[in-house]
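Postdoc handover notes: sequence design on the structure in folder B. Input tokens:
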């Protein structure tokens, strides 16, 4: 019986390359993917897998809509856009934090509406709603650190990796909103048909990650 092809959406960039190394180690290799070319789709018929690269913020859309059976998306994307997918496994890659940041001495006294600049309005809204804190969200797309420096906002909500950019601009993390890392996700409808293969893949990757972390 011919095994059904598993369609996998990978995020473009360094993270996607690390993710592919995991899949390859788990037995889902596709040599064509590593060849220097401009192709968008790569298939290994023998392994019954088909990969394609997508913009990191688009992976969840491909999976939710069924164009991909599984994919890898950052927890920030899943929190911000809440796609209707199964979140199967924390891959432990691309670890960082979603943080509230501002001037190191800033204290929110609650006396007025807090001005918050961010690329993640939904995450920000949910975080402060849980505290019943009125906020004014300022949606920006780049250089979020600039907002408190020029007086546009009181604080920002953004991804923090090393904190170096904040430090160089006189800012600091003030509170952690959530830990962020890459997650393996699956299309809910397709999981009914290829769930056994996906479960096998999850077990293999989880075992590889456990071995790597124990070294």
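Designed sequence:
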């Amino acid at each position: 019986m011919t095994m059904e092809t598993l369609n996998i959406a990978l995020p473009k960039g360094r993270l996607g390359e690390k993710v592919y190394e995991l899949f390859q180690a788990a037995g889902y290799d596709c040599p064509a993917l590593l060849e220097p070319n401009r192709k968008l789709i790569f298939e290994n018929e023998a392994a019954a897998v088909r990969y394609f690269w997508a913009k990191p913020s688009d992976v969840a859309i491909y999976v939710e809509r069924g164009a991909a059976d599984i994919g890898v998306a950052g927890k920030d994307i899943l929190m911000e856009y809440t796609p209707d997918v199964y979140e199967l496994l924390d891959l432990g890659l691309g670890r960082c934090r979603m943080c509230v940041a501002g001037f190191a001495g800033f204290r929110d006294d609650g006396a007025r509406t807090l001005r918050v600049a961010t690329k993640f309005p939904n995450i920000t809204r949910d975080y402060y709603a849980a505290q019943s804190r009125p906020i004014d969200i300022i949606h920006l797309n780049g250089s979020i650190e600039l907002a408190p420096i020029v007086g546009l906002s009181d604080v920002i909500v953004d991804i923090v990796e090393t904190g170096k950019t904040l430090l160089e601009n006189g800012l600091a993390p003030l509170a952690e909103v959530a830990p962020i890392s890459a997650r393996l996700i699956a299309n809910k409808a397709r999981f009914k048909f290829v769930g056994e293969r996906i479960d096998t893949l999850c077990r293999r990757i989880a075992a590889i990650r456990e071995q790597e972390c124990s070294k």
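Context for whoever picks this up: The two ends are 39 Å apart (CA to CA). Don't rerun without checking with the PI first.
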